[in-house]
Design a protein that fits this description.
18% of the residues lie in helices and 31% in strands. It is of the alpha/beta class. The strands form 8 sheets. The protein has a 6-stranded mixed sheet with strand order 7-4-6-5-9-8, with no helix packed on it.
Amino acid sequence: MSSKWLSLEEALAKALNAATPIVETEEVSLFEANGRVLAQDAIATLDVPPWDNSAMDGFAVNSSELEDGTTLNIQGVITAGMEAATPLAPKNAFKIMTGAPVPPNADAVVMIENTATDGDSVKIQQLPKSGENIRRKANDIAVNDVLIKQGTKLKAEHLMLLSSQGTSSVKVFRKLKVGVVATGSELAEPGQERLATQIFESNRVGLSSILHNENVEIIDFGIVEDNEASLRALFTKASASVDVMVSSGGVSVGDADYVKDIISELGNIDFWKIAVKPGKPFALGSINNTLFCGLPGNPVSSFVTAKLLVVPIIKKMQGQTGDAAPLFVNAKITRDIKRRAGRRDFQRATMTKDDSGEWHVTPFKTQSSGVMTSITAANCLMVIHESISTLNEGDIVPVMPLY
């Protein structure tokens, strides 16, 4: 077990290296696939468009026949979902609607605004080029194209694309099972009686909400008091039933902070101190095949470390591809800051965009990790690098949006 303070990058690298993706898959209906992670490449089985079709309402013509002011006989009408009964005849035009198949012998569509109709004839007022206003077969998708890559977290647009190919179900990785628990004799269950020396527990609902956004199966292990036997029994049980166990509390250096010692006894602890504020006492370890994340008991610290470390771990274990690290943008700070260097500081703040599209960030004056209202009032975390002790108004800083 390393007692060295790790940088955020070191901690995240170690965490992602320990996060083994699940391999079990299941077939689910597209109606149940939103937020699931695709387990194999989705391959196109149909051309899109499936035929040459009109890009707008107008008249399908043979452009080689046309001269300025040419008048053509209207051979018929083609609407979306139908096709011409016969090929386009010489000196004729088909009235055609957007999306309808272009008839044989036609090589252009004249938009309706560039024509004038008179009974059964149409005058072409602007000559088209060959291919004009025609969407070619397979111009968007060709058979055997990779539509969506394995590891993609499916969204509405992906499901619409799959459905347009005639797909009704898709193979996805099974849902990750994540256990959550809060430790501490000072904690009371919300809705239950509270002793005068207790506070109501809040981390489990916060963690569960963050992780529900990742579409995992949450198993709530409730509150466990600061008791070695109880904690040992809990973690032994969890290691047999979940892929990831996330606890809050008990990972610091207090006399009753048993969690990391018990995890080390039952399995191993990779590290337990990272150079961030808030959230220094974050523990990473494992018991058998269950990855263990020990978060600080302080609600703000728990919230921040869940965002910075637990969510990327979950993404990796779900089989999601791409960068699992949180998204950051740059913003101008709106006031001077002086602080003690040494840890990377994630300050609660609000970010706004000016008329020119530039982001500005204003950190709250109170940054105590015990002030939970600072999280509800913030829309971002402003980042101050561990080497920086002074920031001046107008300096550019990285910002992590919370929405």
